[in-house]
Amino acid sequence: MINIAIVGLGFGAEFIPIYQRHPNANMYAICQRNVDKLNRIGDTFGIDKRYSSYDELLEDPAVDAVHINSPIPNHAEQSLKALRAGKHVACTVPMATTVEECAEIVRATRETGKKYMMMETVVYSREFLFVKELYETGQLGKVQFLKASHQQDMDGWPDYWPGLPPMHYATHCVGPVAGLLRLQADYVSCFGSGTIRDELARIHNSPFAVESAHIKFKDSDLSAYVYRSLFDVARQYRESFEVYGDKKSFEWQLIEEEQPVIHTAKKPEPEIPEKVTVPDYAHLLPAEIQRFTTKGVYDADESQHLSFTQGGGHGGSHPHMVHEFLSAIVEDRDPFPNAAQSANWTSVGILAHESALRGGEIMKLPAF
């Protein structure tokens, strides 16, 4: 049994009942600076151990692992503190805000022997698991190209989001194109397009409405194309990825409620495309948490977190991520993605934005 502490109780509260039901977890403690919210969540879920100070939480020897759901600017600092305090770390995306911080987290995992997992939802979504099954069973054939997008209107989101460079939050589209074949990004080139409002652009000195990047993978003949937008672009929320093989290809639907399409080679032209219903993959999970692939943790509509409702429930990924993190600790193996993979995916976005500012200059990824 792993004693889990959840840090940050907005989006983070979504995970409490999953840990409470997982056979290898003890949902031990919660941490939130706002004491009223801390107590409200603690009372709702029956959690007695509560901390309003992160440093005090880390001093508790009973805590085995922390699941960090704090604002983006805090991810690297809190992950490093936890690893150096002897705790395993799961952290929501992105890993960090600089390449140097990513490298420091990787070093800390090697120095401490503790596990680090970036909780990238897309690589545990039912759509990704479906395409992964197509690939592993040979139905795609030789993969020839990968593509992904993440477009979202983030007007009205809290403090640290306004004006954020699109590629600084790129793991939802980098993760699936790198993760399907377990590829390592080698270098990236990115262009900015359009402009956002001046009051947003000046916050991060980032003018671009859209950033689009090509990624070249190390020791592979493959490359991928990813694009992102956060402000001043008319588009329904879309996290998509597409994979093109020589036997079959998978294309994401254009509108959320529609179906993805499988293209099969060498059929008569009108028969090549076929709409498919992506199955759920709850059967891969312990019975105790299978319900959470299709049902939100918060049952009341007014209680659901914006990232969950706007993101379509993250494709049923939450219980899969929890299970992977806990299993990696119990089995003493690296989780997927591990620290080095997480650093690679996160740094693609950081360096892609740098490339866009330099007019598309090729930026080499460090070897983590």
From TrEMBL:
Residues covered by the Gfo/Idh/MocA-like oxidoreductase N-terminal domain: 2-118
Q: Which residues form a coiled coil?
A: none
What Pfam families does the database record attribute to this sequence?
Answer: GFO_IDH_MocA
A Gene Ontology molecular function term for this protein is:
nucleotide binding
InterPro entries per the UniProt record, alphabetical: Gfo/Idh/MocA-like_OxRdtase_N, Gfo/Idh/MocA_Oxidoreductase, NAD(P)-bd_dom_sf
- What protein name is recorded for this chain? Oxidoreductase
Q: Which organism is it from?
A: Spirosoma montaniterrae
